[in-house]
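TA notes. Do not distribute before section.
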Amino acid sequence: MEDFPFWAITPVVVIGLASLLYVFGRKSTRLNDQGYEQFRLVNLAQRLGLQIVDGTPDFNLMTALGQHQTTAYSGTGGVVGAVMGDGVKETRARMIGAPFGRTVELVFFYNEHFEGGFLENVVTHAFECRLSAQVATPFPDFEIVPRNQKQFLTATPELGLPLSSFGAPGVDASLVLFAADPRVGPLLAPIVAPLVSFPFYHLVGHNGWVHSRSDQTSTLTALYYLEAMERILEQVACLLEGKPAPALRLPPLPTA
């Protein structure tokens, strides 16, 4: 009796393992979702005062990254692309509203494109997760990131602005401000001071909006602070418009 050739069974084994991993991943995502109901769009909409404009009510931001990873690629590139395994997949959600009278937007977007090659595969990513508040008047660009950044919770400045100061030693000790206009720091210092209690934050003021951004590694942490961040963004936006910051009480912050 001849030995069964190894090359003939290898594709079967690979396909079988891939199928098991896919099924396990989908099951794991469903189980995890049961522990994070507060991050479903329908629950977030109620807590943040927003309306769902893209995504289903049961879509869960806390498990969105896992869901994306276990989603199969949709084929692209015609016959050649099908042979090479080319494909794209996209996970997204969007909510919008005006809980304090100004436009507030919550966006999750993850696009991934796979292009197979004879020597190497190329995977490109486009990711965005942000909570944003619109500002009615022009204002100088700025960014705020933690001074002592933790592993896997890093915020990289993106506007190329010079280092600035809040004019408050206690705030400057924990928060780093980038701004070309030196008036920005002293104006925002009293409002952004509570960020010292946040494990992660990345505030970007640019082009009529103030954003709280996060990336693939920091999103799961940032989600726990959405309600508090929404209030901080409202206060920041009011100050940038030359209005008094409303006395918005921050909700209790998660404990480690």
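Switch to the second chain here.
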Amino acid sequence: MSTSLVQKLLFFQGTFWYNKGVKINFISESRSGKWAIRFGFALVILTALTLIFAFAIGGDSAVVENSSLLTILSYILSAAFSLAGPLSFFAGIYTIIKHKEWSIWKPLAILYALTLLMFLSGEFLFPH
């Protein structure tokens, strides 16, 4: 008797159960996995804040140089943005390797951080 797709893939309380017994959660269960997801969300929020900041100053660096408050805000945004991507990437990879834990959000956080790392490495290797 053949089983239908609904019988193969059951959804119960945020957990996907596949036919071979592989369990994939929607949200990570380990601390390092939750931190990877948090850093991924922080990276998205910091990207939006950085774009809003650049739009607000009109892309004119002289505006930032004349105001000490904007200079401090610029440095804080840059430092937090530079740390959130690699931390999300390495925390996600660590969780997958050490805890053998897969969740829906963790690969998304890793992919987003990997995209950021590839962009930054391209900027450093091939400046324009």
